[in-house]
Protein 1
Amino acid sequence: MDTGTGTDRWGLLPGVISAIVVLSVYVVSFDFPGHYGGLYLDMATALLDHGPGYVRSIDGYTVDGVPFAYPPVGLVLLAGGLWLQVDVATLYWVLPSVFYLLSVPALYKLVTEITGSTRVATLASVLILTSPEVYRPLVVATGVTRGPGFVFSLVGILIGIRLFEAGNPRQIVLGGVLFGLTVMSHPVYATFYSISYLLLWAVYSRSIRGFALGSGVVGVGLVVALPWLGTVVSNHGVEIFLRTSRVRGGIGPDLVGFAISYFYNPNVPVIALSQGVGILGLMWLAVRRRLFLVLWFLSIGVLVGNPRFLHVITGISAAWFIVNGLVPSLERHADLTEWLRRLPLQSGERVDRLVPVLVVTLVATYSVLGGVGFLVAENNVEKISNDDRTAMEWVGENTPVGATVLVVGDGAEWLPWFTNRTVLVTPMGSEWKGPSAFRRQSELRSQLLQCTGVACVESVTEQLTTTPDYVYVQEDHRSVAESLQNSSKYSVVHRRGGIFVFEVHAE
C-alpha cells in the first residue's frame, strides 16, 4: 500500500494545473461571466451607498423585490471592487477564480489529513476540482459567495480533525473564526461545516470534553457572525432563516430524488469519476473498516442532499481506492508486468513506477477532459453575451423608470443591474421569501425557457399579478421572437443581433 506521507512539493501542481485548465476554458467559452451575478452587484452597491443594516430589500427582482439577508463576505469583496472602480466583468472573472485556486491547497491538506497520503491528496484534488458538480458553482459569478464558503469550510474541517483527534483547545479559536466566516459566506456551506463537525466529534472523540470543544467552536463562530445575524434578525426576524432553510434542503430530503440527482445529470457529457469510482471506493473502505468517509457521505446525503458536497467526499474515496487499491492490484498482475518489462526501459525499477504513473495519468486526464466537456456543452451554464449587455443598456436608457420586463432566456437575473428596471420572473433571491415563492418563480422561469411562441409567453403573463411593459427575448429563443413579431400586441422597439426587445400594447 502506498502511503506517500513524505514531503511532496510537487503534490499541489496537478490540482493547480487542472484548475487553471478549467478556468481557461471557462473564460474562452463565455463573453461575460456565467450564471447569476446581478443581484449580488445590487446588494454590494446598497452596502456602498447606505452601509450595512439600512437596506431591508433590493428592488427590481420581481415586483416585490427580495429581502436583503444575504451573507456579507462575498458582497463586501464585490463592494470593495466597485469602490475601486474595477470593471464588473473583471470582478466576476477574478474573485471566483481566486477562491477556486485557493481550494486546491485546502483540499490537498484536508485529504492528506484524512488519508495519510500526499499521493491520494494529489489525485483527489484533480478529481474533485474537475467534477462539474463541484466547480460549476465556484467558477461562475455565484462563486463570489460560494468560493469563500468552500475554502473556509474545507480548512475548518481540517482544523476540526486536529481538534477532536488531539483535543487541543488552542484550535477552538481558529475553527470558530472559520465557522463564523463560513456562516457569513453561504448558508449551505455553513450547514456542510456544522454536520461535518458533528460527525468528527462522533468519530474522533465521543466524549464530553470533545463536545465542549465543538461547542466552543460554534460559540466563537456565532460571535464572529453576530453583527450580521443581529442585523438580519432585527430587519426580518429569525423566521427568515427558517424559510430559506426549507428551500435549500433541510433535514431528510427525498432520498430517491437525491440518488437520481447524484448519479444522473443529462447536461454532463461524461460521468465524473467521483461518482461511480467514488462509490466503489466507499465500499472498498467499508470492507477495510475505514468508515469516516462512508459515514460522512451518508450523513451529508441524508441531512443536506447536495451533490456538490457528495462529490467532494467520493472524490477522496475514488482517489484512495485508485492509489491504494487499484494500482497495487495492477502491479501484481503478471501479464501486465511482463508486457511492461518488454518496453525499452532502463531498469526493472522503472517498471514499478510506470504502473501507478500510467493509471493516475489516465484517470486525471479523463477527469479533466470530462470536466472541460461540460463547460463547452450548450446550455450548461446560464449566460449572457456582449450583445445582451448592450441591449440591456438600451433598455435602461430608453424605457420609462419603473417599467417592468419579462425576460425569455437566461439573462433575467442580470437585467435589473444593467437597466435599473424590474424583471417580473427570476427565482434569484426569492428563496428568502420561502419555499412557495421560490417554487413559483422557478416554475415560471422553467415555463419561459421552454416557450416556442407567443401563446406560451402569454400563458406565463396570465399567471403574473403585473402585466409586463416589455418582453426581452434572448438570442437562443428566436422562435419566440418570430412569433411575437407576428402578433399585433407586440412591437419591436430594439434589436441587437439575435436579441429582441418588444413593447407590449394594451388590447
Protein 2
Amino acid sequence: MKIVVIGGSGHIGTYLVLKLVKAGHQVISITRGQSKPYKEDAAWGEVEQIILDRAKESNGEFERKIAVLNADVVLDLINFTLEDTTCVEEALKKTNLSHYIFCSFIWAHGKATTMPVIEEQSKFPLEEYGIQKAKSEEYLHNLLPTGEFPGDRYHARPDFRSRVGNYESNGQS
C-alpha cells in the first residue's frame, strides 16, 4: 500500500514510518525538513522523503501537492486547524484515497469528566489548539457517514485504561 505520513519525522511519525516500512508498505514521509527522525534505522533508506511546509504554502497548494502523490492512505499528524481539514478533504476526495487518518489530541476533549475518556463524552476543548482539533473532529465525523470522503480520527493520548489496570493489579491507588 502507498502511504503518505504528514509529519513523518516527528514524535509519532518517526516510529510510525518505520513500522509501516517494515510491514512492507511504500511510505512517503512529508516533513518541513527542520529535524531528523528521533530514531536511526536502515529502513529510512526505503522511505521517500519530501520536504513541504503546510504553513508556508497558500491557497491549498500544500494539499494539492499531497493529492498528486495519489496515496492509498494519508496519515495526517500535523493538521492543526479546521481550515487544514477542509483543504485536505477537498484536495484528496478526487484521488484514489482509501483512507485519511486525522490525528487529534486529548486537548480536543479538554478536562476529563470521567476516566477513561471516551469519544461520546462531552468535550471542553483547551485553548485554541484544542478548539481547532475539536472542530476538525466534528467536521470529519459529520462528513464520513456520507461516504464522500474515506477517513478516521485518532487521538494521541495516554492509554489510561492500561495504567489503571496496572495500578489495580499491583494493589496501588
Protein 3
Amino acid sequence: MLFNNQVEANDVINELTASLALKEKEIAVLKIQLLNYQKKGAEFEQWLKKLHLIY
C-alpha cells in the first residue's frame, strides 16, 4: 500500500495543495510582470514613433 494510513495520505494531499497554491501565486505574479513589460514595450514603441525612428 502506498500510504500507511489515512492521516499520512491527508498530510501528502495537504502538502500538494499548499504547493499548488504557491505555484498559482507565482504564476499570478509572473502574469502581472508580463503585463507590465508589455505596457513598457508599448510606451517605448510610442516614444520611438514620436522620434520618427519607427513608423
Protein 4
Amino acid sequence: MENLKNKNYLCIPEVAREIIKDQVQKRGSALPWANKEEYAQMMWQESVRSYQETVENNTGGKYLFR
C-alpha cells in the first residue's frame, strides 16, 4: 500500500479493522465472532460512509479501498 500511496493513489483504510478495534475497546457486541448480524450492518454502514466521504472530498483521483 505504501508504494501505491507514493504513486499518488489515495488509499482508504479498511473499516473492518476500525470497527473491531472500537468494539473491543468499548466492550461492544458488533464483532464477527459475537454478533455477526450487527457486525455486518456496521460494516455496510461504515463502508458506504467511507466511500461517499472519499468521493465527495477527492475529485478526479484514483481510489483504492482496502
